[in-house]
Amino acid sequence: MKPFLRLRQICLVAADLPTVEAKISPALGAEVCFRDHHVSRYGLHNALWTFGGTFLEVVSPLKPGTAAERYLSRRGGDGGYMFIVDCEDVGPRREHIKSMGMRIVADVSRGDGDLHSSAIHVHPADSGGCMLSIDQHSGGEDMMGGYLWAGHDWQRFDPDGPIRGIIGAEMQSDNPERLARVWSDLLQRPVVSIGGGSWEIALDAGLARFTPPGDDRGEGLSAVLLACSDMTAARERASRAGCRLTEDGFDLAGVRIRLV
Questions:
Q1: CA atoms of 222 and 94, how far apart (whole Å)
Q2: Superfamily of domain 163-259
Q3: Residue 217 DSSP label
Q4: Which of 77, 185, 233, 260 has its CA 20 to 30 A from that of 66?
Q5: Is the CATH number 1.10.10.10 carried by domain 5-157?
């Protein structure tokens, strides 16, 4: 199999899942495609939406003392939580991360029938920005193939609307160049300056962008980039759902949605 590394999922964290879910579904024109009961082991519950084989997830604490609750407290509310990529073989990437002296806080492998997935989570205190997950899935190169984290039939929930997929995310930092270079080493992909103090790492599908702070919430995942076939329709839908519109998109669940 040809090597690949691509953005596959963005995870947000929210204090109240039903409230955020009730806004995301109408704003993005999609139904929840899956709820993963396995996240309860981390004291969480969740919801997933799919767009062209990429996924948006929201997790929310079910009890006090979870890492998600601490993240909500540190960043002052709902917002970005995880940047999730997938690849053809997680094994060499696991060894590379260890060789960098980075801590792996979760190393998960799970199967269900013909589906299987593995993931490693890098400690966010080591990576900076947000939690990075590097995954491997039974679907391989096929973006519409097996993806256990979303169950067995997520494909039927892929919406026929203006939002076509997740193509990137931004992480704000007081030192975006330093953060970008750490992630460049982690992902083994080059980083380039794109002007205005911002830096970018291109993946085989999707990108990670590192920017100066746009608010006072501190370092973290601050924006999600969505491929959009009709910006006017997407913004009107978001406005009807109660989202604050911006020049290039709207605000949703503590992050800026940028329509591309």
A1: 26
A2: 2,3-Dihydroxybiphenyl 1,2-Dioxygenase, domain 1 (3.10.180.10)
A3: S
A4: 185
A5: no
